[in-house]
# Entry
Amino acid sequence: MPTFSFDIVSDYDKAELNNVFDQTQREITARYDFKGTSAAVDWLNSDKTGLKITGDSQYQLEAIADIVRKKLAAREQSQKLLDTSQEPVTSNLKMTWEVPFKKGLDQEKAKKITSSIREEFPKVKTQIQGDEVRVTGSSKDDLQKAIALLRAKDFDFPLTFTNYR
# Structure
């Protein structure tokens, strides 16, 4: 009897995030309410592991963050990858907000995933392998139902399903 599997990771597509970044920059330069202000978006570092949002006020920071969220949704990327827990910093009449991207599954998050799958699907096996979770089963239907279950649950981190075999 063949076994089927897939992996669950918490990662993002860098190419799509490059597109989101470019589209956000274009919209900021085109919007009339940002003309003549310090409104901008930059990469957090050279590894592109987050965004640095700059503006004159909290309103501008929130407006730029909304633009980023809309662009993520348009490109079918999870908005949960934005870690907006840090507070904006004010200096020289400018506000800067560093928004890193969430990446990787720690043990606690992996345990949440495995327990929710085991509750619903006892025939499906889950295995934590570092920062990913391997899900195996004898039925493709069960695996697809497990994916649907995880998409329906509201985790506070993005989930990506890879290596579906």
Remarks:
- Helices lie at 14-30, 58-74, 107-120, 140-152.
- The domain at 4-11+104-162 is CATH 3.30.70.860 (Alpha-Beta Plaits).
- The first helix runs from residue 14 to 30.
